[in-house]
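User: Structure please.
Assistant: Input sequence and predicted structure:
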Amino acid sequence: MSLSGDPLVRLTGLEISVRDAQGQDKIIVRDISLEVQPGEVLALIGESGSGKTTIALSMLGYTRGACRISDGTVEVAGHRLDSLPEARLQGLRGRVVSYVAQSAAAAFNPMLPIMRQVIEPALVHGLMTREAAEDKARGLFRALALPRPDTVGDRYPHQVSGGQLQRLMAAMALITDPALVIFDEPTTALDVTTQIEVLKAFKAVVRDLGTTAVYVSHDLAVVAQIADRICVLRDGMVQEQGRVEEILFHPRQDYTRALVAAAAARVPAAPMPDLPRDAGDPPLIQMRDVVAGYGGVDAQGNPQVRILDGVSFAIERGKVLGVIGESGSGKSTLARVVAGLHAPASGRVNLDGYTLEGEIRHRDKEQLRRVQLVFQNADTALNPAVSVGEAIGRPLTFFHALRGADRKAEVARLLDLVRLPAALAGRLPGELSGGQKQRVNLARALAARPDLLLCDEVTSALDPVVAEAVLDLLIDLRRELGLAYMFITHDIGIVRAIADEVMVLYGGVPVELASHEALEGPLHHPYTRLLMASVPELRPGWLEAANSAFSCGSTPGAGHAAGCRFFQRCAVSHPGLCDVLDPAVHVGAGQTIACHRGFDGLQATPGIAQGAIPA
């Protein structure tokens, strides 16, 4: 990093306003002054609605929706972006300054090959021939540690993993050798092990290319691994700026101290007491030996591509089952099967002892009401043309026949429940921050007044302070309403905070089922230990020290050959045993583990009992 000479980016007195429905201007970003030196990585940190993305987008000369730059200056690489006409700005975007979005899935066209999309900025700006652009793209694929860099560009977006798609989007941003790259929450939706892969790739390519970057994030632990300086934002204003070490270890402002404390918190919550139930009553929801997949079924009724392979679990009323695992482990498919959005090939799902139809169109309205799914990606779950109030109001009308003033009042109550102002009811999703959209997503599901909420990574897009508030809200709803959850996440800390029981999925099968108490114990399946060891720590240098030997790799499909699915990535595997025979299931106090070693073998293995994955 070079800190000599003039800054590459300079914001001076930046003010951004939004025009409300009454035509009045409201200032949402106020008096922002900051600089980014050539070769430096500046992180913008703050809770949802703090202005992080709005400020970052101003460095593209862009404002969302009814927003506009109402005062101040934005200079990037010698260009005054705040005063340029749109035609001139289009010539700079993607060439002088480029953007890596939070959701790669939403950024790529599913109908076009990846290579065609990655090289498009270079061709649009006339910087090189197609052949030269493709050669350069393949070089970037190698630099970003993508598998099969010479052919990955021939694939379509749905044929690569989420982590690979994020790195491909970075290649698209870097293809033009921009002066500035803006990374907007690029690892937020990734599981912990994939996040390590992507962060290491981003850090290496930024270092090797000498790239100047602005990194938008709510995750201080991630920022600690990649940034040189941090700018802390709240309510559209700068709270403090400083070197990473200064902000993490010597914060000056109370708000920054709260952010650091929330990021460092890993305190397990006490489990909820059992709700009264009659002896012999069935669980609220129960899955038995479910097999599910894609691509049609064979003569024996097995799917061509298995995603879930004989999964069983139960959730009692008012209880929380946490489901953790990497991308591709089957977590989201599990939720979709329970919700009726994906019919199982075999097995069954029971609600209060009654078997639910596999397809949602065959379930009655009461069954639909009682089981609600909160989707992972609020950007795709919410219709961009439908207002917040209408999105929340539709289930109120469908399930409870609410209309007019009654519906409007209930929409306002639900918004307040998820810590959003009632005034947002008139806004469109595109006018909200990522965290606000996710809370609208949650409010829409709560509108049905369900018994079971299927939460698919609902806090992954939220900053630690807001995520903590949402978790507190979910815990309160359990107490008040007896609401049960299947809580899907890749965050071990969240599982500890909310779950009564945890199921760890790998390759479509549960490798561990642990009670809240057992999760805090010393013995776990080697894969569970890997997930625990992959959570970034709140200190610079952790990323370089992270054991990459077991933190990367792909999750195998459930239709694998015989043997343990985790064999190739396991630090304590037995060749000739683990790769040949399916692991036996061992049952202990509040804990079930599918591992050839069993509890005694794991206890005797150096490092495993203490929670370390040996290199």
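Residues 192-209 form the longest helix (18 residues).
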